[in-house]
Specification:
Blueprint (H helix, E strand, L loop, with lengths): L1 H4 L2 H18 L19 E2 L9 E2 L9 E6 L4 H15 L4 E6 L3 H11 L3 E7 L3 H6 L6 E5 L5 E6 L7 H10 L2
Parallel strand pairs: 3-4, 4-5
Antiparallel strand pairs: 1-2, 3-6, 6-7
Amino acid sequence: MSHRLRFLPLLLLVVFVGAVAWRLANPMDERIASRMIGQQVPAFALSPAVPGKPGLASADLVAGQPRLVNVFASWCVPCVAEAPLLLELNRRGVPIEAVAVRDKPQDVASFLARHGDPFGAIGSDADSRVQLDLGSSGVPETFVVDGRGVIRYQHMGPIEPGDLTTIQREWEAAR
């Protein structure tokens, strides 16, 4: 019996290495989906993030037409990468509103001047309250909100070219 016990540490090492290799090959999905999907947008009223553009309120999202709500920040590097794709969605007729998180008006204005402005309204969420109420875990994130103000879809992370079809399809389904 002692002969068999000599191989126990080796067997345990093989099992441990196998478990680690399996987890590395199959990482867990660390995205945290909003619990607000299928729920009414929480009540909020944000002041304008930049002069000359309206702020954003939850009442604006029950106007009968679905729209995207993009949560972004001027200091967010992935937000720069998705900016041309938001312009493309807007060019295709998808209305987009925005929530600027922990940002300064001059920084948001500079971001829009450099990267384009697809937004109908931009609310300033200086303390991230609305971002958290939406169930957003970071920037950028984009939500499809139907015409009754119900969140129908959440896209976590920057929009990439391959995501345009899905996001437009979700927006059209929300009509």
